[in-house]
Amino acid sequence: MSEKHKQILLAGNAAIAAGNNEGFLDLCSEDTEWNFIGEQTLKGKNAVREWMAKTYLEPPAVTVRNLIAEGAFLVAQGEVTMKDEGGKRTSYDYCDVWQLRDDKFVALQAYVIDPGGKTD
After folding, report:
1. CATH fold for the domain made of 2-113
2. Residue 23 to residues 78, 90, 92: CA-CA distances in angstroms?
3. pLDDT tens-digit readout, 47-83
4. DSSP letter at 58?
5. Which end of the chain is less packed: N or C, by CB atoms within 10 Å?
């Protein structure tokens, strides 16, 4: 299952990179819950859809450095670069802990930090 879960996440990241948020959301359960540690918690696929529409003004660039899978859990660590409303790109380091059920993302614990100095 571990390799399958890794492939599911990589397919989801590819969908987001292509601007296909719905393609990623197809990989999420209806009751998915995303907890951005220290910021906010999104409950349900519609809440995630609204967040993506507001946050991904253009597709983010995601670089996965490490993928670790065990049982129903998948950890992805890397860097994400996003553009804000003013057009400034900022890179963040992240570590996402995903939980899957029936090959769907049911929960996310996202640790995202601005390491400073990575803008244009």
Report:
1. Nuclear Transport Factor 2; Chain: A, (3.10.450)
2. 21, 24, 23
3. 999 999 999 989 999 999 999 999 999 999 999 999 8
4. S
5. C
